[in-house]
Amino acid sequence: VIDKEARRLYIMDPIQTSQSLEEKKLRNLSGYFVFHFMLWWNGEDLVKPICAVSGNLNLQVEHFTFLPSIADSIREASLVISHAGSGSIFETLRLGKPLIVVVNEDLMDNHQSELAEELAEQNHLLCAHPQTLRETVEAMDLHALQPYIPGEARPVVALINEFLGFPV
Amino acid sequence: MGFDAFAAACCAIPVLVSVLAVRVAYVLCRSGLPPSRSRASGLRCLIVLGSGGHTAEMMNIVTELQKDRFTPRYYVAALTDNMSLPKAQVYEKSLIHGDRETIIENAEFMQIYRSREVGQSYITAIATTLRAILHAMWLIIRIRPQVIFCNGPGTCIPLCASAFLLKVLGLGWSSIFYIESIARVKKLSLSGLLLYKLRMADQFFVQWPQLQQKYPRAQYAGRLM
């Protein structure tokens, strides 16, 4: 099921996801992937346990707290694992990359999970909880994901123009 | 003397209240109807930005707007949000053509106090909300927007409420366009719910058909992202 080529795994803001990727889970996955972690916020503390084991495994860990545009990093990735923020989700989908969204209802507002669940139902991404992330990655079939066709602002703006009496 | 003043107050107060009530009713009826001014020059806009996906969605709208119709553009973001205004500035700079210096002429960038930070206690939030409302009123009076675009961050509520108040007092008219965030699939945000129920928005957009069915006065015109 899992591709044996070395892959780049790009993780966005995984305060929740990194906590779920403990050493034994990394071991299970590292035979198949080169990990390229990118962490936001207080990445230092989160990265330490991962870096400690990375020497034994086929792991390449990078982290940063702010990048003006993560688009380039996403483009290089074969898979993106992200929190359920709409910005992260759509930035990844619009670049046509496979996405696993980690929903952690303990740590954030419920409203973020609505979007992830709806898009998972439409088969544009995979949804997981921190506890189920490993199984999701092991069982994932990325070819089954449907490409996401981006929306656009034109219809809304046309209605706004019409309301204001501008010629459309 | 005292009795006369008291009598005067007794007459004045009911009159004032009635006038205000009539004005509020008028504004509510007039909302949702196109404004009647002529299109000589551009419309002064207030664009409310918010953290996370809010700004990305809003900039999608701004990119699509015809700039000669919507100018000058005032961007507002919360004081503690340090990512949204730079994004707007990058966009506005990209609109400048030619060899002129990169001075943005048709846009201004402002920050506003938030009513409540994430995790802040609700008791201290009363004082900070009051401060946010006063600051919002000040910004609205200063800018006198003719059009307001917002899509959900809490910062838009004091601004929209202030704009509504100005309408009631007859001191200016702003058409409020609210586009609920794409992250809202089944339920409206608090900002959206307030603007929808109080009928303060002239046009109210949702980005998922399920929401449009639940809130029939909303319009569904596809997704922004």
Automatic annotation (TrEMBL), chain A:
Coiled coil regions, renumbered to chain: none
Start and end residues of each Glycosyl transferase family 28 C-terminal domain: 53-148
Domain of life: Eukaryota
GO MF annotations in UniProt: hexosyltransferase activity
Pfam families reported for this sequence: Glyco_tran_28_C
One GO CC annotation: UDP-N-acetylglucosamine transferase complex
Biological processes, Gene Ontology terms: dolichol-linked oligosaccharide biosynthetic process
Name of the protein this chain belongs to: Glycosyl transferase family 28 C-terminal domain-containing protein
UniProtKB/TrEMBL annotation, chain B:
Bilayer-spanning residue ranges: 6-29, 122-141, 161-179
Entry GO MF terms: N-acetylglucosaminyldiphosphodolichol N-acetylglucosaminyltransferase activity
GO cellular component: UDP-N-acetylglucosamine transferase complex
InterPro entries from the UniProt entry: Oligosacch_biosynth_Alg14
GO biological process assignments: dolichol-linked oligosaccharide biosynthetic process
Keyword rRNA-binding attached: no
Cell location: Endoplasmic reticulum membrane
Highest taxon of the lineage: Eukaryota
Topology within the bilayer: Single-pass membrane protein
Gene3D superfamilies, sorted: Glycogen Phosphorylase B (3.40.50.2000)
Keyword vocabulary terms for this entry: Endoplasmic reticulum, Membrane, Transmembrane, Transmembrane helix
Family: Belongs to the ALG14 family.
Protein name, entry field: UDP-N-acetylglucosamine transferase subunit ALG14
Organism per entry: Aegilops tauschii subsp. strangulata (Goatgrass)
